[in-house]
Amino acid sequence: MSSPTPSPAPEQVEQEGGPAAGVTRPRDGVFAPTHALLSLALVALITVIAFEGMAVSTAMPDAARELDAVRSYGLAFSVMLTTQLLGIVLAGVWCDRVGPLPSLYAGQALFGVGCAVCGSSNAFGLFLVGRGVAGLGAGLIIVAGYVVIGRAYPESLRPKVFSVISAAWVLPSLLGPPIAAWVTTTWSWRWVFWLVVVPVVVALLAVVARHGQIAAADQDVEASSRDHRQHARAAWFGLLIAASAGALQWGTHELEFAWSVQTVTALLGVAGLALTAPLLLPRGTWLMRRGLPSVMVARFLLTCSFFGTITYIPLMLVNERGLSLGAAGTILAVGSLGWSTGSWIQGRDRWAGRREPLVSVGGLLLTTGLAAIVAITHFGWNPYLIALGLVTCGTGMGLGTASLSVLSLTLTPAADHGSTSSSLQLADSLGSVLGIAAAGAVFAALHTVAGRDAPVFVTMWLGLCVVSALVVVAGRRIRT
């Protein structure tokens, strides 16, 4: 992949990102005529996933009570991430072999069906099936979207594309929680899931409208460096890592400190993840070797600490502090502004060629925000102050995750963007799964009754603070 060669002459063009990226003028932007409709289609996809994530987080306390699954609260989130792992690995293979379009179409269909099943569930088991189907679809969508960005946009525009995509979280993050709270209290939590199906259909139509442009971006891309045997191997390992993550989730969702079938299952899941994950990520990831391996481990650490914390914040606010679902949703919505701010900062041209320090700064901000949430919970301070902690956490996540997305594509040839995007999203989802599983295991083991769990939340989140602090180290190991 050639690097851009800027020139002061406005009429001069630059060739970036290989043949598939095409030729573009430096003044072109993400919403210039060449890229406008494709950018809108990508924004539509991310908006759907963002709305589902933020809205469901707000509605879940009510759904857990109705389905008699408070102790298994974290499982409702982690099972989706578990099947997302499988979707991510399969999408990497699929995109490398036939391009991103089949993965995009299948992913949107599965995501919509999964949400519809969740809304129709009368038992927690069926609810988990719906979450699993939606997670599989989300995994296919996310990786395919990254491949489209790597192939259809020049390298100089990619930071801005990721900035716009992160900004696509703003409206769903601001409106999703309040809307979900209103819908839940006015009708039912079920309508939150059913309403998600509508924007899924809209996003699907947007992708269909840009079918030709996405397909054209694949025509001149060289064949993947992985052959059929390697692709088949990756698919089987993807199935194994998803099964291992599922075993871990099931074994820890009602954890007790005693030997049982569930405890053994959880240990087998840990062993499966430990054996499989290194085979699907760049060599040296867990040793934090310089370059792409440190990109992957930094992404893992960020999502592990952030999502392990944020998943339980609504439950703490409602059960421990007595806030309404609407108030808890508002706190999440305000906190989400930080993510967009951090992503906007990293998208500025001044960071071109020196993006690695942003990852370390992101890790530091995330750790600071998590520590503030721990202090607010422990000392019983005004719960609305948690919004400030979440703004700090979100700014760190925006800086770190968007920068890591850009770095992963920069350090990889275009032909292998599918496998690299798959690895990055695998690290992302694996971090979320393990973070939520660890928090869920602590909560299930120490939970007594609602209103007396503040020390449990403090214990969970202190451990995740330590994890987030390691991002600072990983960020310093990215530059080769």
UniProtKB/TrEMBL annotation:
Region (Disordered) location: 1-25
MF terms (GO), sorted A to Z: transmembrane transporter activity
Pfam families: MFS_1
Subcellular location: Cell membrane
Alphabetical list of InterPro entries matching this protein: MFS, MFS_dom, MFS_trans_sf
Keywords: Membrane, Transmembrane, Transmembrane helix
Transmembrane segment boundaries: 36-60, 72-94, 129-149, 161-183, 189-209, 234-251, 257-281, 293-317, 323-345, 357-379, 385-409, 430-450, 456-475
Superkingdom, taxonomy of origin: Bacteria
Domain Major facilitator superfamily (MFS) profile: 36-477
Membrane topology listed for this record: Multi-pass membrane protein
Any one Gene Ontology cellular component term annotated for this protein: plasma membrane
Gene3D superfamilies (UniProt xref): MFS general substrate transporter like domains (1.20.1250.20), Multidrug resistance protein D (1.20.1720.10)
Entry protein name: MFS transporter
